[in-house]
Amino acid sequence: MKNSKFVAILCITLFASCSSSKTYFSTSIRQKVENIGTPVTQLQFYIDRDVELSREILKDETKVTSGEIRFENGKNLNIITLKKNTPGVCTKVLPDKIIISFEVGDDKFLTFGKTKFSLDTDPYKILANSWIGDFGSINYEGKKYFIHRGGNASVQIKTNELNKVEVNKRKMTGRVITHAAPTTP
Predict the structure, then answer these.
(1) Tens digit of pLDDT for each residue in 134-178?
(2) Domain locations along the chain
(3) Strands 143-149 and 51-56
(4) Of the four, 4, 6, 58, 174, which is 20 to 30 A from 103 by CA?
(5) Residue 89 is inside which H or E element, if any?
(6) What is this structure's pTM?
(7) Are 180 and 46 in contact (CB under 8 A)?
(8) Which SS3 state, helix, strand or coil, does residue 68 take?
(9) How deeply is 31 buried, as exposed, middle or buried, from its count of CB atoms within 10 A (0-12, 13-18, 19+)?
(10) How far apart are CA 14 and CA 178, in angstroms?
(11) Sign for the pseudo-dihedral over CA of 27, 85, 82, 107
């Protein structure tokens, strides 16, 4: 009996470890999450690939708040790198898009959402104000940056977020017959 329980637990653990631990966040996943009563702002998000933001630093700018400075082709560039699997939080939920922050601070967020021709099962993609070829223009830290790498990035959540089940359990107390005094007509 103990061996069969051990084997069952081992099998469940093996199957759970073989399945993907993360799921792409999409419109259909969002609906499932909202239907089970979990606020989207309470989910832990992860970026699915490396993303690189870059902007040219003008000569009159003396302070770079984050990232690294790189000198390329006679220009100073400020580069901010977001590595694959970096955790982020949703700070705002809008129709068909969400705002995700991967670091603390005002204006330090990226927007992800449904693209023009995407299906409900397609992952939320990184959105930009405008696209010029593969480069997306966004505002980050109050400055204009370009998505230099990772323009097709998406966000994921842990799969176990979809399997959360809240169980309310109670025990019935039972009823007994109560004898009432007979009534006479």
Answers:
(1) 889 999 999 999 998 888 999 999 988 777 656 577 888 888 888
(2) 18-161
(3) antiparallel
(4) 58
(5) strand 87-94
(6) 0.72
(7) no
(8) strand
(9) exposed
(10) 55
(11) positive
